[in-house]
Amino acid sequence: MSEYLEDQAYTNTLGEALAAAPIEATPTEPDDGLIHLSTAVVLKPKKVSPFAFQAVAARFKDPKVPEFYNENKGRNEPNPMHPDYLQAVTDVEIARSMATIDATIALGTTLVSVPQGFPNPDDDDWLDDLEAAEIIIDRSNKRLRYRTWVKFVAAPSVQDVQTIISKVLKNIGVTDEEVAKATASFQHQA
User: Fold this and answer.
1) 15 burial level (CB within 10 Å; 0-12, 13-18, 19+)
2) C-beta neighbour count of 76 within 10 angstroms
3) What is the DSSP string of 56-79?
4) pLDDT value for 25
5) Distance CA 135, CA 154 (A)
6) What is the pLDDT along the chain (190 residues), one digit of tens a residue?
7) What is the C-alpha to C-alpha distance for residues 131 and 82, in angstroms, rounded to an integer?
8) Which of 100, 115, 95, 105 is nearest to 145 (CA)?
9) Burial letters 95-124, b for 16+ CB under 10 A, else e
10) Could you tell me if residue 104 is left (phi over 0), alpha (psi between -120 and 50 degrees) or otherwise beta?
11) Which three-class secondary structure state does DSSP give residue 133?
12) Can you state the angle between helices 50-58 and 83-108, rounded to 10 degrees?
């Protein structure tokens, strides 16, 4: 794959992740390069290989376009407007975006600080709470535990997720213009 196409795939995958959250006005925060969440948790963005995002995106194959027999032409033709196909495309795009957000959190951030009295990733109480809602993870996997903690405890708002993604993208060199271009064709999935 050429470097240009590789960069485009990388930018598009990240754009899909960014598009998963609506773009809202970002509240003023310190310009220290860190990620300040609404819970007062502070994360630090770190570099992520584009190959990691490509590997994540590659796990989600686009569905095959169904065909129908066109009696007027006497042949099978693609039917990209079939409702089941359109739903399958939407489902794949959402799953790909969510997996990319997970990778952005797990691979693109590290913990800097947690406010006093706030649960941290090594605590078990927040995991017990999630398990009560039947959200169960492998407690022995520290990175999975960290990613889950950020998603469900440290970053409880859409704006928090948006901030994480934006800061990680900026840290790995994706310009605002590239992100806007990549996200232009995607709509927020409610």
Assistant:
1) buried
2) 11
3) HHHTSPPPPPPEEEETTTTEEEE-
4) 42
5) 16
6) 444 444 455 555 555 655 554 444 445 667 898 999 999 999 999 999 989 999 999 999 999 999 999 999 999 999 999 999 999 999 999 999 899 999 999 999 999 999 999 999 999 999 999 999 999 999 999 999 999 999 999 999 988 998 898 889 888 888 777 755 544 433 344 3
7) 38
8) 105
9) ebbbbbbbbbbbbbbeeeebeeeebebeee
10) alpha
11) coil
12) 150
Distance CA(145)–CA(137), nearest Å, equals 7
Contact residues for 29 (Cβ-Cβ < 8 A; gap 6+): 36, 163
Tokens of 174: 């994706």
Cβ distance 60 to 54 under 8 Å? no
What residue type is assigned to position 164 of the chain?
A: I
How many angstroms separate the Cα of 162 from the Cα of each of 83, 133, 155, 158, 190? 30, 25, 10, 6, 15
Please check whether residue 46 is in contact with residue 38, taking contact to mean a CB–CB distance below 8 angstroms: no
CA angle 43, 16, 34 (to 5 degrees): 15
**Secondary structure (3-state) at 149:** helix
* Distance in angstroms (rounded) separating the CA atoms of residues 38 and 153: 11
Q: What amino acid is encoded at 2 in this protein? A: S
